[in-house]
Amino acid sequence: MFKELFDQYIWTNEKKIITHAKHNIPGLGNFEYQNSPKNSLPSSFHYHTNIIEIHCMVKGQRTTLIEDKGHIRSYTYTGNNIFITYPFEIHGNGNIVQPPGEYYAFQIDLTNPKNLLGLNEEYSQELVNLLSLQSLRHLRFGSTHLSYLRMAFNCISSLEPKSIRIGVQFLTCFLFSLQYLTPIVQEETKEVDEHILCSINYINDHILEPLQIKDLASVSGYSMSHFKMKFRQEIGITPSEYITLQKMEYAKHLLTKTKQSITEIAYSLSFSSSNYFCSVFKKFTNCTPRDYRALHKEKTEKTSFTLQE
Fold first, then answer.
1. pLDDT digits (tens, 9 = 90+) for 48-82
2. Confidence (pTM)
3. Burial (0-12, 13-18, 19+ Cβ within 10 Å), 142
4. Is 57 within 8 Å of 40 (Cβ atoms)?
5. Extended beta strands in 79-141, E state
């Protein structure tokens, strides 16, 4: 099974990571500050369950690779850039050594939408909705947002209860303001092994059918054992995990673009029952299919109303 990666607590002149076990803030995972004058080793491909990761570059440059339907998309972000990865997205640095730089990074865990960052249920759910429906990943921020981050990190890193509470307020301001930042369009695509790409295209073309690993191996032209090894090497997760990820993405499409019932969607995606489909969907998106459809409808209506005004 593909494992998640979590850094441990560290406090040096160049790298400081405060773990949840240290700060105990609901919904906040690791909070990191790095200011390194030398290159750093790349991280391997991985993903996080129900966790959004936000990198905020102060100076220097970093490159992150994200798997997207058989392609590895490369994003390079520099000073005053924010880069976001979403739950279950396969990402890492590949074999790219990261140059010297200064940045803040933190993880938001969406598992408990009623108590995020200590907010009351209404505000917590509002922030979860905002982050869950946020589709942009590369943004430009200014000096005000950098001040929010510096104050948040400095207060939280003191590990004193009063300072932590102040730090959380600055971090909350930063997160709610993401929706107003300017997006940056910049990406490159790196091709995956052509045989693995054939199997991925097969998955996407037959997403509404039961998919067997032996059939994918046959499509790729590799033996079963070599196919599994090569697929994970190229994509970062197993073929079965990838199939589930793509079914969840297609389910989102059906929920927002069609009027099919949840039961109909479940069976069309070859799930054995609607209950099982709902449990898998919630694991991957942190909300039920019904709630996801309602949230998307609410967002669409708000956008339409704004445009009419």
1. 888 999 999 998 888 898 887 777 888 888 888 99
2. 0.65
3. exposed
4. no
5. 81-85, 91-92, 101-109, 138-140
